Amino acid sequence: MKSLLGTIVVENIGGGGSSLGAAAVARARPDGYTLLLGGTIPYINEVLLKSRPLYDPIKDLDPISCIVVSALVIAINPSVPAQTLQELITYAKANPGKLSYGHNGVGATNYLTGELFRSLAGNLEIVPVPYRGSGPVIADLISGHVSMGVVGVTGQVLEFHRSGKLRVLAVTSPTRLAGEPDLPTATEAGLPGFISTGSSGLLAPAGTPRPIIDQIAQATHRALAEPAYQQMLIEAGLEPTPDSSPEKFRRMLTDDIALWTPIVTALGVKID
Question: 101 by DSSP, 3-state: which?
């Protein structure tokens, strides 16, 4: 969007499951010069997973526009004798405690999705192993240090699947990926209700004037209207959302909270 808005500086602020970066934006001046590229994760973390939240995403952040919706995959090391999700479930039941799964840390949507999988599949005894990000999870999954990984869909993950370095058994989206239509959804693979997606888009500090919100939203729409950019997102396993708006994005994030509330409550997860 540089050609539409001018100079854009990207500052990566890691830590706290996206909370530190989101908190920095929530506390910034509402003048349109500081934005957050985020969505589901910083909302879920602060609303549901913390007893001492750093900010209130509902009150402190104004959604501008969703850019993409992403899903996760259930992937295994090729040494695991399973070609389908149902075969993995059968193997896990026959070998309780033998399998392990890597995730991005307790509280991350990867972890919550892994626990949802274990629950829906009959409380499988698969050992969760936390990591400091998807990169280490994928590296250890390929090397066989963990049997299974719950990781976000990326072009790299899809390429590792195609080359046989890991085996993706299912995606957690409600429909098949446009960029990899041969992969079944978890529902198609025999696990109804196993849907987990996350949205990513732009948000501003609460109180940002509506004309500024609309200007940035318009720039987002124009960027997403570029066929080459849409294709790049699709090839990375992402689903572009070119028809988003501040109101639609807010509803998406509210729906995310409603989806995960009973799951987080049942798991009793807190990350502080």
Answer: strand
Spatial separation of the C-alpha atoms in residues 202 and 204, rounded to whole Å: 7
Residue 101's CATH number: 3.40.190.10
Average pLDDT over residues 71-88: 95
Locus of tokens 């003048």: 31
Q: Give the number of domains in the chain.
A: 2
Identify the residue whose tokens are 């990207």: 10
How do residues 8-33 score in pLDDT, each as one tens digit? Answer: 999 988 776 678 899 999 999 999 99
Residue 242, amino acid: P
Q: Are residues 60 and 121 in the same domain?
A: no
Tell me whether residue 106 is in a domain.
yes
For residue 185, give the DSSP letter: B
Q: Which residue has the higher pLDDT, 145 or 51?
A: 145
Region of 25 (left: φ > 0; alpha: ψ -120 to 50; beta: rest) is alpha
Q: What pTM, to 2 d.p., does this model score?
A: 0.83
Answer yes or no: are the C-beta atoms of 202 and 216 closer than 8 Å: yes
For 107, the domain range is 70-171
For residues 64 and 109, membership in a common domain is answered with: no
User: What pLDDT does residue 17 have?
Assistant: 67
**How far apart (Å, rounded) are the C-alpha atoms in residues 152 and 71?**
6
Q: Which amino acid is at 215?
A: Q
Count of all residues that appear for the chain in the document = 272
Q: Please state, in angstroms and rounded to a whole number, the distance separating the CA atoms of residues 17 and 166.
A: 25
**Within a domain: 254:** yes
The CATH number of the domain holding residue 58 is: 3.40.190.150
Residue 161 shares a structural domain with residue 85: yes
Give pLDDT, residue 157.
Answer: 92
